């Protein structure tokens, strides 16, 4: 679904207001008649003219229609689609100020939710801010009024609609410059109305496109997709049903893989993955994060390490190069299977992998009963509070926690400090998603 530019709207009154803060989602915060108003496109310290979008009981949502007094940290967005496309929310804020805002979110969550404060703050991790996104999902919509197919992210103000974009500066450059071509490709297909989405995943050498189609494809459509892949160097996959239905169309056996070099030389590992597998979105930041995690974990030759929410072995296998034994635990069977295959492919024999739902009580399992010297956690947004009900054991001296949600990290930090007797030694942010309000962070806890 996409909006027509000519769609009529009832006139809405515009209001002038001062922006007192920046919310955790990147919107400015004003207070009008004692009520919080979240203003898209506004920055802290600015005075803006705004238009209310939605009214709620305790807060309102608005958009800035004119900046009357700009923040000194305001910059011109690189992307012409910024403000319409919902893929980015902070391109109008300079890079240094983005990091400061994310650090403030993390510190606020520690103080407000966990009631803890790190003994020291780690310098923020940053990498290339453009072309970093190697994995994602593009929405597809045939729009009769525009006479073409739109491919892109959802609109910021109206997530029901697909943003009308021609390129994307944050997506892997092999694909970001070809968004409009993708729309033209889908528009030429017999099944144009039946392509629901296109997922993309980039390894070091191959970029894969997964076409989710709701009806069987004609021979002509399959030929067109193959020709597009050959012309632009993409591996083409089809997804006619659920995740298990994904299969390559061209070439016959594409290979997706990326290398990690935490210490260089003999410590290098290479991870193969499938296009819908979870991998860290930002390849450059993943390498920096790996180096930071290894530094904080300080793995020693005699250590036994437990890696929870291990996925493909992103942390497990580099750790295995340095320790006596490591065990990775993950809830998705396919990821665990591929983690084991990656271990064998890299000649790693001291890493074991287990399938377990870490949001259920696993204290009776063999791996949970064993003493581990060190623990690494990389949970999803929900955090790891269920695991922390029975881990870590008294033998665990150090924990490194990689987080994609500062609120759950702060809650779990409070558990580790107040219930398990750990000290929050250090924490810091990692700019995994530049130009967005997403806060990725890392923390180390010690006895």
Write up what this structure looks like.
The protein has 447 residues and is an alpha/beta fold. The chain has 9 helices and 22 strands. The protein has helices at 95-114, 173-176, 179-187, 219-232, 283-297, 316-320, 333-345, 366-369, 406-418; strands at residues 14-18, 21-22, 28-32, 35-40, 47-55, 59-69, 120-121, 135-143, 148-152, 195-202, 207-213, 234-239, 247-250, 256-260, 269-273, 304-308, 325-330, 351-355, 374-377, 398-403, 423-430, 440-446. The strands form 4 sheets. The chain has an 8-stranded mixed β-sheet, sandwiched between helices. A 6-stranded mixed β-sheet has the order 1-5-6-4-3-2, with no helix packed on it. A 6-stranded mixed β-sheet has the order 9-8-10-11-12-13, covered by helices on one side. Strand 14 (256-260) and strand 15 form a beta hairpin. Helix 1 (95-114) packs across helix 9. The longest helix has 20 residues, at 95-114. The relative contact order is 0.11. This is 23S rRNA (uracil(1939)-C(5))-methyltransferase RlmD.
SSE arrangement:
Layout: E1 14-18, E2 21-22, E3 28-32, E4 35-40, E5 47-55, E6 59-69, H1 95-114, E7 120-121, E8 135-143, E9 148-152, H2 173-176, H3 179-187, E10 195-202, E11 207-213, H4 219-232, E12 234-239, E13 247-250, E14 256-260, E15 269-273, H5 283-297, E16 304-308, H6 316-320, E17 325-330, H7 333-345, E18 351-355, H8 366-369, E19 374-377, E20 398-403, H9 406-418, E21 423-430, E22 440-446
Protein name: 23S rRNA (uracil(1939)-C(5))-methyltransferase RlmD
Function: Catalyzes the formation of 5-methyl-uridine at position 1939 (m5U1939) in 23S rRNA.
Keywords: 4Fe-4S, Iron, Iron-sulfur, Metal-binding, Methyltransferase, rRNA processing, S-adenosyl-L-methionine, Transferase
